[in-house]
Amino acid sequence: MQSRTIYLIGPMGAGKSTIGRMLSRELNLPFRDTDQEVEERCGADIPWIFDMEGEEGFRQRETAVLALQMEEPSYVVATGGGIVTREVNRRLMITHGFVVFLQASVATQIKRTAKDKKRPLLQRSDREQVLADLYEKREPLYRQTADLVVCTDRGSPRHVIQEIKQAYFSK
Ligand code: S3P
């Protein structure tokens, strides 16, 4: 059994946590979520961290969590949508893992995040514009970091998982 960590990257609403949990069960690997670990280590939620420390403070915490995970065995890791904005994060994931870009259209992202109250970047009225701008900026970074790109707009999570497993084991 191959033992590299699988990193799921992609925009908010791409399905990283849902797919990640299911995939970890199938592969019998522990599941990690960088957002959740940042919150646990800090003892506060992401909106609070953004309020008190700004996005930069959150990004530093995110990198610290990612770097710590490198010291441990293999996982399936769901990352936050902005993880690729730091070069150090991209390098860490490329070097230590198998990276999957879960791609989703802006329309899908909007639908899946419609009721969200916990993502600081989306607590405004022009969500669609925000998501479109972020995607334009980040899409090249997702692509250059990924070993595999899988679209999650259509098809079941099960189908996405099959694609990931096939690529992971043949690499
Ligand atoms: C962010 C995405 C969020 C979370 C934070 C910032 C981003 O994670 O890390 O709110 O910059 O795109 P999800 O992609 O899991 O929603």
From TrEMBL:
PANTHER family for the chain: SHIKIMATE KINASE, SHIKIMATE KINASE 1, CHLOROPLASTIC
Function: Catalyzes the specific phosphorylation of the 3-hydroxyl group of shikimic acid using ATP as a cosubstrate.
Gene Ontology MF: a single term: shikimate kinase activity
Name of this protein: Shikimate kinase
Annotated positions binding substrate: 35, 59, 81, 138
Pathway: Metabolic intermediate biosynthesis; chorismate biosynthesis; chorismate from D-erythrose 4-phosphate and phosphoenolpyruvate: step 5/7
The EC number(s) this enzyme carries: 2.7.1.71
Cofactor note: Binds 1 Mg(2+) ion per subunit.
The reaction(s) this protein catalyses: shikimate + ATP = 3-phosphoshikimate + ADP + H(+)
Organism (species): Parendozoicomonas callyspongiae
Pfam families (UniProt xref): SKI (PF01202)
Binding site for ATP: 13-18, 119
Cofactor: Mg(2+)
NCBIfam families (alphabetical): PRK05057.1 (NF003456)
Taxonomic classification: Bacteria, Pseudomonadati, Pseudomonadota, Gammaproteobacteria, Oceanospirillales
First-listed, main subcellular location of the protein, grouped into a coarse class: cytoplasm
The entry's keywords: Amino-acid biosynthesis, Aromatic amino acid biosynthesis, ATP-binding, Cytoplasm, Kinase, Magnesium, Metal-binding, Nucleotide-binding, Transferase
Subunit structure as annotated in this protein's UniProt entry: Monomer.
Amino-acid positions noted as binding Mg(2+) in the UniProt annotation, renumbered to this chain: 17
HAMAP family assigned: Shikimate_kinase
Enzyme class: transferase
Family: Belongs to the shikimate kinase family.
Localization, UniProt: Cytoplasm
